[in-house]
Amino acid sequence: MRYQTNAKGESTYLLGNFNTGETVTITLYNLATGSSITLTSNSCSEIGTTGLFRWSTSNITTQPTSRTEYTYIMTDSAGFVDFGKIVLGGYVDNVDGVISSLAPSGEYDAQLDATISSRAPASEYDTEIARLDTTVSSRSSHSPSDVWAVTTRTLSSFGTLVADIWANVARTLTAGTKDAEIDAIKAKTDTINWPEVVALLKIETNRWKIVSNQFIIYDDDKVTPLYTFDLKDNLGQATEDSPKERTPA
Fold first, then answer.
1. How many CB atoms lie within 10 A of CB 64?
2. Topology adopted by domain 2-93
3. What SS3 string covers the chain?
């Protein structure tokens, strides 16, 4: 693998595998010359208790200014070694120079300021894209900073419409093709006896009890009798067992 040099703001870790708890040091060599490299620190640190030891290339005293191949050898206190190869510098440090050579300084975004038709034949874009066939700069003389510099933004083209809407505290449906149907529905609902509806709901859902030959339906508090009926058998005699008739008490 090839990495940027530390001079470009990037440092890379080299790894070695040893027994956990060991003391591990590193030696770095230039592969082209075979010479050892001066280091500000040759001490490797263990990652937790994994047995993996790391060393940062930021410890190279004199960072390379061009592509340089290195080999590293890590050694622990028992004499065991681990080694590898790394390449620093070269094209990864020079990418910015390649990009900047594409256009003069300050003109990079100018490459986008052109009509679509200048970039492809008309047969290669449809009607919708053709509507964009103009330079971006022709659409507005304002920059994004110009827009955000305006601290107050209002719907000014609608006159007092917005204020009129919020000033209306009461809003009703006054017109429409469904008016007759709505009126017909209202005429039906106006005839509903809502107290009777409530009473029927209580009869269906509230607590009831048979006691002393009577059938009692209670109010919502489950204590106050709401309706009381006398229970009778098929001979008209008061009964609690298998009643055949009930009459309001």
1. 20
2. Immunoglobulin-like (2.60.40)
3. CEECCHHHCCCCEEEEECCCCCCEEEEEEECCCCCECCECCCEEEECCCCCEEEEEHHHECCCCCCCEEEEEEEEECCCCEEEEEEEECCHHHCHHHHHHCCCCCCCCHHHHCCCHHHCCCHHHCCHHHHCCCCCHHHCCCCCHHHHHCCCCCCCHHHCCHHHHHHHCCCCCCCCCCCHHHHHHHHHHHCCCCHHHHHHHHHHHHCCEEEECCEEEEECCCCCCEEEEEEEECCCCCECCCCCCEEEEC
pLDDT of residue 218: 93
Contacts of 206 (CB under 8 A, 6+ apart): 217, 218, 219, 220, 222, 226
Tokens 């206190």 belong to which residue?
A: 77
Task: Give the closest residue to 43 by CA, choosing from 53, 35, 30, 31.
Answer: 53
Q: Residues 65-94: what's their mean pLDDT?
A: 86
pLDDT digits (tens, 9 = 90+) for 182-238: 888 888 888 888 888 888 898 889 999 998 999 999 999 999 998 999 999 888 899
**What's the average model confidence in pLDDT over 140-163?**
69
> Rounded CA gap, 79 and 64, in Å?
30
Integer-rounded Cα Rg, in Å, for the chain is 45
Indicate yes or no: pTM above 0.70: no
**Degrees (nearest 5) of the Cα angle 237, 238, 240?**
130
Across residues 136-161, what is the average pLDDT?
A: 68
Domain parsing of the chain, residue ranges: 2-93, 194-248
Type of residue at 218: Y
